[in-house]
């Protein structure tokens, strides 16, 4: 029998939320909250069912994962279960001291998982895809909203009508100015709603989209935590002061 798939960030975030919410305790496998989380993890549309064993994310496994977090918790006087994965520590470092973001992210994951399951939306959770700290599910939702061709074209058309050009809101790069007619109307759009607040049902408003060049867009996605348009603009100005 092959091993179950490794825990993803999405699953670890949900487990950490339970650990924090339960008072930094390793709840027993029989605890109702552990049983419920096991059910939620089995419903996440991330792991292909053919890769799951019969004990996939069962209550015992969930309880053990809480024990892994216990071994990381600096407030715990003891050992806990020390054979956790590298991502356990990463998720702890990113979320344990930001309870608001942890709870918001976990809530968005649960809501989006239910919505995707109900709508049977075709999502790809390729392990090689770029993944944000908030996990595979919210990463895919963010990217799909940025690829919403109708919303993107409406945003670009609105800006063109108002200003006559598409200028990156970070570095002020203008494709038309650099490339002439070939670059007219060309730009990318970045979805500005924080990833941890996104859900599948969130309807993209034009105000949610920002005009950016490809380089700045990739720098935003590359940053950890993800920088806002304003934050990246400040960074660019600091390293490239105008004469």
**Rg, Cα atoms, Å:** 21 Å
In percent terms, what proportion of residues is strand?
under 5%
Q: End-to-end span in angstroms?
A: 65 Å
Helicity level: 40-55%
Low-confidence stretches: none
Shape: elongated
How would you characterize the largest beta sheet? 2 strands, antiparallel
Number of strands: 2
Walk across the major sheet and give the strand order: 1-2
Q: Note the run of SSEs as H and E.
A: HHHHHHHHEEHH
Indicate how many domains the architecture comprises: 2
Mean pLDDT: 93
Structural class: mainly alpha
Work out the helix count.
Answer: 10
Summarize the structure.
Helix content is 50%, strand content 3%. It has helices at 9-21, 32-43, 59-72, 86-95, 99-119, 136-146, 149-163, 175-179, 214-222, 229-239; strands at residues 188-191, 209-212.
Core attributes:
10 helices, 243 residues, 50% helix, 2 domains, mainly alpha, elongated, two-stranded antiparallel sheet
Explain this structure to me?
It is built from 10 helices and 2 strands. The termini are far apart. The radius of gyration is 21 Å and the shape is elongated. It has 2 domains: 114 residues, no CATH class; 96 residues. It is mostly helical. It has a two-stranded antiparallel ribbon.
């Amino acid at each position: 029998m092959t091993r179950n798939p490794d825990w993803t960030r999405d699953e670890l975030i949900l487990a950490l939320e339970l650990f924090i919410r339960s008072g930094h305790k390793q709840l027993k496998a029989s605890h109702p909250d552990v049983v419920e989380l096991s059910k939620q993890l089995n419903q996440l549309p991330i792991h292909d069912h053919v890769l799951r064993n019969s004990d996939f994310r069962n209550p015992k496994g969930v309880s053990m994962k809480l024990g892994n977090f216990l071994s990381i918790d600096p407030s715990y006087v003891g050992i806990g279960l020390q054979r956790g994965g590298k991502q356990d520590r990463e998720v702890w470092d990113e979320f344990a001291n930001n309870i608001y973001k942890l709870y918001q992210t976990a809530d968005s994951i649960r809501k989006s998982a239910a919505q995707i399951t109900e709508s049977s939306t075709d999502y790809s959770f390729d392990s090689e895809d770029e993944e944000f700290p908030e996990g595979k599910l919210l990463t895919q939702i963010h990217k799909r909203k940025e690829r919403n061709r109708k919303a993107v074209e409406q945003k670009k058309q609105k800006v063109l009508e108002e200003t006559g050009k598409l200028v990156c809101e970070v570095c002020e790069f203008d494709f038309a100015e650099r490339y002439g007619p070939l670059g007219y109307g060309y730009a990318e759009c970045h979805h500005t709603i924080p990833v941890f607040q996104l859900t599948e049902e969130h309807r993209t408003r034009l105000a949610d989209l920002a005009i950016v060049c490809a380089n700045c867009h990739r720098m935003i996605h590359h940053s950890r935590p993800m920088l806002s348009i304003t934050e990246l603009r400040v960074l660019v100005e600091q390293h490239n002061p105008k004469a």
